[in-house]
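Appendix C reproduces, verbatim, an entry submitted by the partner laboratory led by Prof. M.T., so that reviewers can inspect both the input and the predicted structure.
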Amino acid sequence: MDRNAHSVFLLYYHLVMVVKYRRKVIDDQISDRAKNIFEYISPKYGIVLEEWNHDQDHVHVMFRAQPKSEISKFINAYKSASSRLLKKEYPQIREKLWKETFWSQSFCLMTAGGASIEVIRSYIESQGEKDEQSIQVSDLSDQGAGDPDP
């Protein structure tokens, strides 16, 4: 549980950001740099990174926030800064993304209330794996929903 002067809270979010046109440009080095940019910007918005992973055309991020966090402003600031820096620092990206944007305009943001944090963490950790045992998005909605096991 997190707390401030007047409240106690636990706000976890799962964010998915997709590369523009779903171009396959993210490798480990680019993902690490994108993560570093996230970690640099996030404290200004009361956000704490919990988990990060990527596939070639998108990233999955689990983070904690505060009730006062302006999440959409943070996401827009992050996407803008990271797009500019990544395209500047990795010129090979311009071969597949010739305009200024790196990220798709849209994103997926989910609260982590429907599935346990550990299930979401496992899902994010399994991104990029081509194993039949990796967790699927549909598995997340099944966790914690419906009747409890007898």
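The helical segments are 28-41, 71-89, 117-125, 137-142. Additional entries are available on request from the coordinating office.
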